[in-house]
Write a structure and sequence with these properties.
Blueprint lengths: L4 E2 H7 L5 H9 L3 E3 L9 E2 L5 E3 L2 E2 L8 E6 L15 H5 L6 E3 L7 E7 L2 H8 L7 E7 L5 H9 L2 E2 L2 E2 L4 E4 L4 E6 L6 H8 L4 E9 L2 E2 L8 E3 L2 H11 L38 H16 L5 H6 L20 E2 L6 E2 L4
Parallel strand pairs: 8-14
Antiparallel strand pairs: 1-3, 2-4, 4-5, 6-8, 6-16, 7-8, 9-13, 9-14, 10-11, 12-13, 14-15, 17-18
Helix pairs in contact: 1-2
Length: 331
């Protein structure tokens, strides 16, 4: 039996327009399904005949899945007005879009496709699909740094999920993530007092950069796609996959976010000092630190020690029209 999908999604997947635009077409009566005006939410399949403005909807294009070794300087956006956009860099003849993103100063493997369902299946942190990176920082790292990175770091109002970190040199390491917070690795390193000087994604799930030089792309072969489809078969396409699993433990309030152009050296502090401050903040938050006298002083009086109200039982003061004075007699 042919799979059925909501009409707006079906139209969108052909590349005709977005889902929102498809909703507008349906609502305005410009779409017919098997000669009948459909209702919002109607489900269709490849067996149905769909007409838009009197013309048959073109068949859904063949699935495209591309692996691209993005160079530094290419921006992961489909906005054509941005000269360095990734779509123009690849110049593929059909409409495709990136799955996730790599920062402009970063390089390495990224997928592009025309299949919207695959985007969330791969990206949702709760689906636990691995992405591996090579990272170089501005000064030597030690085992304590590795332990802190792998156990979770407070950024963006949460604590990152535990991950795999392996030291590969005096200033370099590899890290395997299953989530993708905004500029996650750079923010994690910055929190610990380090600046990332080089970042390269070398693997997504079962695909790596073998045989793919910088700036080049290739179609994934059948065996690679079978492995990806098998791995994502039970993956969720919805936000629920990230709820509770995608982000780590909640951590106080989010810090002020820095933009891509901010100075990464700003407010740099050794990670030992940062850790001590975090521990102190946690103790203060949980009520285990601070001046006990001050805490007792600020306690709300109990019912047994309730203060008497000297004005209790008296009529409220009455304002006299035309003056700011009060009639103290209440008359």
């Amino acid at each position: 039996m042919t799979e059925q999908k909501r009409l707006n999604k079906y139209i969108s997947e052909t590349g005709f327009c977005s889902r929102r635009a498809a909703d507008d077409l349906i609502a305005s009566g410009r779409v017919k399904v098997n000669g009948i005006l459909p209702e919002m939410g109607t489900k269709v399949s490849d067996a149905d005949t769909i007409i838009i403005d009197g013309k048959p909807l073109k068949a859904k294009p063949k699935a495209v899945f591309i692996a691209y070794n993005k160079p530094v300087g290419v921006t992961c956006t489909t906005e054509r007005k941005i000269k360095s956009n990734i779509v123009s860099a690849i110049n593929y003849p059909e409409r495709i879009f990136p799955i996730g993103r790599l920062d402009r100063p970063s390089e390495g493997l990224i997928f592009l496709t025309n299949q919207g369902d695959m985007v969330n299946k791969i990206l949702r942190a709760g689906n636990n699909h691995e992405k591996e990176y090579e990272v170089v920082v501005d000064r030597p790292i030690d085992e304590r740094f590795v332990k802190r990175m792998s156990s979770g770091v407070p950024i963006l109002g949460t604590v990152t999920k535990p991950c795999k970190v392996h030291k590969t040199g005096a200033k370099s390491f590899t890290i395997v993530l299953t989530q993708g917070l905004n500029r996650q690795i750079r923010r994690m390193c910055e929190y610990l007092g380090f600046e990332v000087t080089h970042l390269k994604r070398i693997r997504i799930m079962n695909i790596d950069l073998t045989g793919l030089s910088s700036g080049k792309w290739r179609h994934l072969n059948d065996s690679e796609m079978r492995a990806i489809n098998q791995a994502t078969e039970s993956s969720s396409k919805t936000q629920e996959a990230s709820a509770g699993a995608g982000a780590g433990r909640q951590f106080d309030k989010p810090r002020k976010e820095s933009s891509e152009g901010d100075n990464p050296k700003q407010n740099k502090r050794s990670y030992g000092d940062r850790n001590r401050k975090v521990d102190t903040d946690n103790r203060n938050r949980d009520g285990f630190a601070g001046n006990s006298k001050a805490r007792n002083k600020n306690k709300t009086p109990s019912n047994n020690t309730r203060r008497e109200n000297p004005n209790e039982g008296k009529k409220p003061a009455k304002r006299v029209k035309g003056t700011l004075s009060l009639n103290k007699s209440g008359k």
